[in-house]
Amino acid sequence: MKNFTKSETKVIGIIFLILFLVSAFNMSISLRKGRDATRKNDLSTLQKAIDTYYQKYRILPVATDDGEIIGCFAELPIIDYSTGLPLNSTICEWGVSAFETILVMPKDPLFNEGYSYRYISVGNSYEIYVSLEGKDEAEYSQSTALKNLQCGSKVCNYGRDVKYE
Predict the structure, then answer these.
(1) How much of the chain is helix, strand and coil, in % rounded to 5?
(2) Calpha distance 157→87 (Å, rounded)
(3) Where are the beta strands (DSSP E) in 5-134?
(4) DSSP strand E in the chain: where?
(5) 3-class DSSP state for residue 41?
(6) How far is residue 73's CA from residue 23's CA, in Å, rounded to a whole number?
(7) pLDDT under 50 in the chain at which residues?
(8) I need a surface site. Which of 19, 59, 85, 128 has the fewest CB within 10 A?
(9) pLDDT computed for residue 153 by the predictor
């Protein structure tokens, strides 16, 4: 068996380097798209849980100034029987608290890097926002980004608005 020449070894090395770089680039895009898909799925899950809360109490959970939901319960809900409203709801912590049908509130996949979800509730409507990493995502919304809402340390650029009649 004959060994490769020096020039043949260089060519093979260059080919492997190119294949590695293309694979690494595609892998980073796939990971980003996966995180963005998780964010979109988390919004759907939150929307269903908020709808469940609304069905139970006929009111939307309120929001803190920094976009957290006030609608979790440390113990069984205490209901004001004259109004039907829960009296002992607390702030739901992303990634810790249980909220309605959610065993653990979702938190952004890059929470440790400053990404976060944002909830806003006003009367008979609510909004949920995230910051997608990919500006090429079909759901990326420039009009949402122009609202300049903060999703952690990032600007929110995707969200859902829900109104109840």
Answers:
(1) 35, 20, 40
(2) 34
(3) 62-63, 69-72, 79-80, 85-86, 90-91, 118-122, 125-130
(4) 62-63, 69-72, 79-80, 85-86, 90-91, 118-122, 125-130, 150-151, 154-155, 158-163
(5) helix
(6) 46
(7) none
(8) 19
(9) 94
What is the distance of C-alpha 148 from the center of its chain? 17
For 151, the token pair is 């999703």
Place of tokens 């009009």: 143
What pTM value is reported for the model?
0.82
Quote the CA–CA distance of 108 and 158 in Å, as a whole number.
Answer: 13
pLDDT digits (tens, 9 = 90+) for 76-118: 888 888 877 888 999 999 999 999 999 999 999 999 999 999 9
pLDDT of residue 39: 95
Name the nearest CA neighbour of 121 among 161, 85, 152: 161
| Nearest of 96, 101, 74 to residue 86 by alpha carbon | 74
pLDDT at 99: 95
